[in-house]
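Slide 14.
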Amino acid sequence: MTETGFQGAVQDRLAAFQEERIGRRIWDHDHTVWRPDPTEITNRLGWLTVAADMRTHLRELRAFARECADDGLTATVLAGMGGSSLAPEVFRETFGVAPGALDLVVLDTTNPDQILSVQESLDLAKTLFVIASKSGTTTETLSHLAYFWEQIPDGSHFVAVTDPGTPLGDTGRERGFRQVFEADTNIGGRYSALSHFGLVNAALVGVDLDSLLEGAVAMASACGPTVPAEDNPGLALGATMGEAALAGMDKLTLGLPPDIASFGYWVEQLIAESTGKEGRGILPVEGEDLGSPDMYGDDRLFVVTGAAGLGIEAMAEAGHAIVRIPFEDPTRLGGEMFRWEFATAAAGAVLGIQPFDQPDVQSAKDATRRILGSGEVPSVDPGRLDELLGQAEPGNYLAIQAYVPRNADTMARLHAVRMRLRDRLRLATTVGFGPRFLHSTGQLHKGGPNTGVFVQVVEEPSRDVAIPGQPYTFGHLLAAQAAGDLMALRDRGRRVVRVSFEELERA
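Slide 15: predicted structure.
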């Protein structure tokens, strides 16, 4: 589709949104925007008003953070997966740590090397553990709780963030946790950034919560029910995302200024888990360096936030589709979160999918559970990397899935390989760390279009750690998750191989 044709399709979609009152119907919690069946829709739209609602909790959150600091705590470990951890990580990376506040480390792995590295970097006597799980049953998170409770069995060092009535909340009260925060049940995990799941941790590191919510409330108003579709920033972006995907430009490539680079982690899981299902989906591409225009096929939509100095003009001149989002400064981050949430919901309407469920995430979990129940991790046919890369075609994407510790060294090494393969294959590329990505892009990998080529990187941890109360260790759990996901991908007919880090770097 030509650029003119694409813009015409977006304008036609916005006109249809206006005629069908899509903006008003979203605010009215009308599930028929997406599906006749209201299941997991009508009770997942609390994010529309959560920013305004959370204003009443700010005094409590700030008092809680001051109490923790006054009690001599200096660091926070957030044990959570996916939507429970990514927004707090963005807040920490974007805003830093205010004077006198607690530093934050996100623990969203089962890799024993990384878990022990986190532990060894801390003074546990001055550490607060925030255990965050919407369901209160997340395997990884409860394993973290079991391990660190054995290290320091003192409720004053623990906080739970969960939905009302969960096993985690019960555990927190039984063990005398410093506090049990119960979040709005009408918000799904990936839409929970501005709920207790995001703001408890934001308060602990000293983020200006008033500014964060002010930006979100202002954007919610700009996307309000009476705003014409063409003037609604959420509907406009959502229409563009959806129409681009329908036109084959389903690799949404993010251009972000350095001061909010980590925002891409959050956007990635929001889009991938919301849209990647029923053989359709939008692949969010975060973290790629910008190449020359001829590096890219016609399957890209570039969304550039702010005056990021990304050299995007050459891309526009070459005819690539570019969306530009103005951005003043990081204090407006709450507003951008709402924009993308509304846009992703609108894009789901364009694609004809239900953006609030995650039907294919469970397949890897089930495979992992079967492996753990058997007591033995099965051997898998690794496959050949050169054969896999030879199968890649225009319009495909390369996903590197690394079951290795996530740190500066491994991130830099994987990025170097990623860029080299992007330039050689002319494909969109992503990098995910296991099991972290299973709670975000894993849904798209298995439920989206069968256009991915997957490289699973597995390295044996140098150390292992027992999980109290379980017959398996963290190392065994990690191995089971890697094997389970590989099996789930192959069961869906996906192209996937397993390699060592060394083999990948030789590619």
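Speaker note: The mean pLDDT is 96.
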